[in-house]
Amino acid sequence: MLSYFLVTHFIFQYVRVNGSSMSPTLFDNESYFLNRGVYWRHEPRRADIVAARDPEDGCLVVKRIIAMPGESVYLDRGNVYVNGQLLNETYLPRYTLTFACEKNESEFFIVGNDKFFVMGDNRNNSCDSRIYGPVPRQNILGEVIK
Question: What residue ranges define each of the domains in the chain, with the CATH number in brackets?
Fold first, then answer.
């Protein structure tokens, strides 16, 4: 019983996606494994899908890491640039555009130390770091396995 508790609360557990912000990669009301132990071995990486606590209200969100601590993110005319380089997002459908909050033409972010810039794959329907800013490392609970 103790080993079941330890595994399901500290290593693997289920997480349910609520909403379409990760579509078409993950689907609304579907459950996925959350690997809470993966980041004991290494830090989160760009393109990882993670479960994190929303910095504004503390609820659980599932998003993709776009930029790492200390990097810059520039959203311009539907494109995402990290450290001045166009981000190659092979996980998104072709011709997916990413706009800044409220469809501003461009927006620039600096990701602070020990923070990560996250976005949903459904860029037109995602509340993410474009709205609430980079997510502190301690808010990232683990990697979602699809």
Answer: 2-145 (2.10.109.10)
